[in-house]
Specification:
It is built from 4 helices and 6 strands, in the order βαββαββαβα. It has 119 residues and is of the alpha/beta class. The chain has one domain: Fe-S cluster assembly (FSCA) (GMP Synthetase, Chain A, domain 3, 2-Layer Sandwich), CATH 3.30.300. Strands 1-4-5-6 form a 4-stranded mixed sheet. It is globular, with a radius of gyration of 14 Å.
């Protein structure tokens, strides 16, 4: 997919699904920041195996986020709605810690932050 984030680790099998995955992940919002998880930079890794099992590694902006229990379920349901993705495991990590520099240019503009990312 053209213009896919280069800070998300993906494998070859997931490549054909990147566009529908991004479409789905831009509909999942962090309720406190009101920005989608793709542009917020909460996604670290997306892989797919030969059986259609998707592994999705993500983080949250802070520990104790109120959506930690519900968001992984929402993500899994949205990913399973994509033809070819049969099952999903969503895992959460806090290493590395999320930083504001992970917010995309679009996300920065939407939040009123300098689109240059402090550079």
């Amino acid at each position: 997919m053209k213009n896919f984030r280069d800070d998300i680790k993906v494998n070859d099998l997931v490549q054909p699904y990147l566009e529908p995955i991004v479409e789905q992940m831009t509909t999942v919002f962090d309720p406190e920041i009101e920005l989608d998880i793709y542009n917020l930079g909460l996604i670290y890794e997306i892989t797919l195996d030969e059986t259609g099992h998707c592994y999705f590694l993500m983080t949250f902006t802070d520990t104790g986020c109120g959506c930690e229990e519900t968001m992984p379920y929402e993500i899994a349901e949205k990913l399973k709605s994509i033809d070819g993705i049969k099952s999903v495991k969503v895992e959460t990590t806090y290493s590395p810690v999320w930083k504001m520099t992970r917010i995309s240019r679009y996300g920065r503009i939407a939040l009123g932050i300098s689109p240059r990312g402090g550079k």
